[in-house]
Automatic annotation (TrEMBL), chain A:
GO molecular function, one term: thiazole synthase activity
Gene assigned in the entry: thiG
Organism: Marinovum algicola
Binding positions for 1-deoxy-D-xylulose 5-phosphate per the UniProt entry: G155, A182, G183, N204, T205
EC number: 2.8.1.10
Protein name per UniProt: Thiazole synthase
Record flagged with keyword Transferase: yes
TrEMBL record, chain B:
PANTHER family registered for this protein in UniProt: SULFUR CARRIER PROTEIN THIS
Domain of life per record: Bacteria
InterPro entries: Beta-grasp_dom_sf, Mopterin_synth/thiamin_S_b, Thi_S, ThiS/MoaD-like
SUPFAM superfamilies from the UniProt entry: MoaD/ThiS (SSF54285)
Protein name: Sulfur carrier protein
Amino acid sequence: MRIYGETIASRLLLGTAQYPSPAVLQDVIRASGTGLVTVSLRRETADGAGEGFWRTLRETGARILPNTAGCHTVKEAVTTAHMAREVFATDWLKLEVIGHADTLQPDVFALVEAARILTSEGFKVFPYTTDDLVVGERLLDAGCELLMPWGAPIGSGQGLRNPDALRAMRAHFPGVPLVVDAGIGRPSDAAQAMELGMDAVLLNTAVAQAGDPAGMARAMALAVEAGRAGFDADPMDRRDLAVPSTPVLGLAELA
Amino acid sequence: MKILVNAEPREVSGLTLSEALAELGFDSPAVATALNGDFVPRDSRAATALQHGDRLEVLAPMQGG
């Protein structure tokens, strides 16, 4: 998969939060074969927790995608982006501007405005958005080269609440990388997203909160691979009625 | 002077942002700073004067989704 002119090794992108321990996070990153992991910026503590986490992550060699999680305004998101670029030494950015505290639904109006500012400053913006086609068009107009529609609210594990909308996005934006970000709960959800023609999935809680996170990471990687292979192989059309698979021609009359 | 560091009141004697960071023990290269809501790049810290009541945010890499 190519994004912003660069090749991402895997179509499974992972969040780094909520793991039982740093060691488990490292196991998960290895087991998943992920091409990109998301990180955040938070207040540094007296014991240097941030630096420790950063060291743990660098040991994995994973490529980093900083986020603007928790930002509710354009100003907060843009300032966080500037700080992230300095700390992580990358202009890649997962842009989140949250509009609603309960659903963590993106504020798509602020999102488009922040995207326009940040792309003009050279950021490669990965926008966390809804599955709205018009918003998608505005984000592309603003300089984004991919879209990251939600499958369901962040952390809900509900799977794809509106597969038809994702299918419509695929049809409407044929050459644009689409990443389902948020809502994946099980491997079958990830496979479904890939079968719809999504280019990748980004997930966190589904792996981090599984009983065996590394096992779930492997399962997700397999599901993503299977779903993509299925999409590439051009699935059959659904039919309303049964059609015999065994030939009817040559059937004996035994009544 | 008294400033707010990550929302906690702290007393610092340094007059610039870089002096205050050293004094507060933020010696990791993996931190970014914002003063009163505005990003202060690393290169500008030495030239950024602090004032009583300033709000300083010192952010570091953390887990994220």
